[in-house]
Automatic annotation (TrEMBL):
Keywords: Amino-acid biosynthesis, Cytoplasm, NADP, Oxidoreductase, Proline biosynthesis. It comes from Luteolibacter arcticus. Pfam families: F420_oxidored, P5CR_dimer. The gene is proC. This is Pyrroline-5-carboxylate reductase. Residues 155-259 form the Pyrroline-5-carboxylate reductase dimerisation domain. HAMAP family: P5C_reductase.
């Protein structure tokens, strides 16, 4: 597979670095194009890919669209006609819009990655356009899965994905900050409190993923009768922690729909 990357910023670099590192594609099969020379140079240095000056020069079998949404129309207009796959991570552009802007013969897959992909811990979802094949879906799964996990979902659920895994890192960062503040209030130095809070969230998330146990079961395993944890859990319940997180995700999803996500 020859991969052409349109927009060589952080997300494009992360996905390509992950794909190369995992052996999904060799660096010599990747080329990139960006309107900003510094971004293109950084992409080439990080990935070993070739840089070209225009989109038609990419001459790829698969294109990865990583531009800002308002730059996507002009970028897609520059694609050559012919059989090819376009994988878009441009936020808010649904498959119908993408299909209306690509040349004849180009199949479309829409993706919603998140920023932890930059450290190989991404959570992404994707949906296929009308002409995309099962093989195309596997290509998307391979690329996105090289920097985390990737799930295929109906396009009608992409706004929900935006609210959960797209916006979710910000909610978790707030939780880590608040936990660290609690540690400081209890007497811990700031730096140590932050490290302990972040590692606690990382460890707990890993337990959920690797054990396959429901979070409620894992919570109960930590919660002794009359102990410290149940005292803290009761306080979180009293202050509406669950409801706040549920509302944060659903409000973000609703805002995505208002902005034209799906």
């Amino acid at each position: 597979m020859k991969l052409g990357v349109i927009g060589c910023g952080k997300m494009g670099s992360a996905l390509v670095e992950g794909a190369i590192r995992s052996g999904a594609i060799p660096a010599e099969n990747v080329s990139g194009c960006d309107a900003y020379p510094d971004a293109a140079k950084a992409f080439a240095a990080a990935t070993g890919a070739t840089i070209v000056e225009s989109i038609p020069e990419l001459a790829a079998e698969t294109y990865l669209l990583c531009t800002k949404p308002n730059q996507a129309g002009s970028a897609l207009a520059a694609l050559p006609e012919g059989e090819a796959l376009l994988i878009s991570v441009a936020a808010g552009l649904d498959t119908a819009w993408l299909e209306a802007h690509v040349p004849a013969g180009v199949r479309v897959i829409r993706c919603m990655p998140n920023t932890p992909a930059l450290v190989g811990k991404g959570a992404a979802a994707f949906c296929s356009g009308k002409a995309a094949t099962a093989e195309d879906a596997e290509v998307a799964r391979l690329l996105l899965g090289s920097v985390g996990i990737a799930v295929e979902l109906p396009e009608s659920l992409m706004d929900a994905v935006t609210g959960l895994s797209g916006s979710g890192p910000a909610f978790v960062y707030m939780m880590i900050e608040a936990m660290a503040d609690g540690g400081v209030r209890a007497g811990l130095p700031r730096a140590e409190a932050l490290k302990l809070a972040a590692q606690t969230v990382l460890g707990a998330a890993t337990m959920v993923l690797e054990t396959g146990l429901h979070p409620g079961v894992l919570k109960d395993q930590v919660t002794s009768p009359g102990g410290t944890t149940i005292a803290g859990v009761a306080e979180l319940e009293k202050r509406g922690m669950r409801a706040a997180f549920i509302e944060a995700v659903t409000t973000a999803a609703r805002r995505s729909a208002e902005m034209g996500g799906s």
